[in-house]
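= Protein in question =
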Amino acid sequence: MNSYASEILIQLKKFLMLIIIGIILFLPFLSALFSSYNKNLFEIKINNQLMNCYYTEKYNNTFLINASSRGYNSVENLINKIDLKDSIILDIAEYEVHYKSGRRKEDTNNWLRDSGLNYKKVINSEVNIEIKRMNKVLYKGEYIKDISKYINEKGRYYIHIYSKRKDNFVSSVKTHISFNVIVGGGNYE
C-alpha cells in the first residue's frame, strides 16, 4: 500500500470514529424526543367505592430523559361522597396494562379500564399518603389501609397518594394522585 492510500485509510478511520462518538452522544437527546414509558393504571377506592381522581406522573432515567403525563380516571366530573362509618378503608390498586397478545401497553393516556386490555395487579411498597382537612394535615406517611382514625367526622377531606416505582434498572416513575371526598354529606368545609 502506498503512503497516499494509507493516509486516506487513517482519515477514514478518524471520520468513522467521530461519527460513532457523535451518535453515542446524540442518542440520549434523540430518544428524549420519542420518550415513552410503561404507564400503570391505578384504582382508588374508599369502602369499595371507586374514587374520581386526578393524577400526574413523572418519568426519569439516568440518561436525563424525562416525560410526564396527567389526567383523570373518569370522563364524568363527579363529586366523591361516602357515608360516615366506623370503618373507613382506603384501597389502592396498581395494575400493569397489557394488550390481549400479552405485549405491554405504553401509551395508556388515561386511567379508564378497557375490556380490550388485560390488567395485572402490581404490589408496590413505595406508597405514601397524606390526608388533610380544613388546611390541617391529619396524617402523612406510609400507606395505611384503615384510615378511620383520621376520617372520623363529617366534612370534606383531601387525600394525596404518592407512588414511586422502578420501571427498569435505569428509570423510575413517580405518580401523584389527588382527590377529595365528602364524608357524611352536608358539611362541605
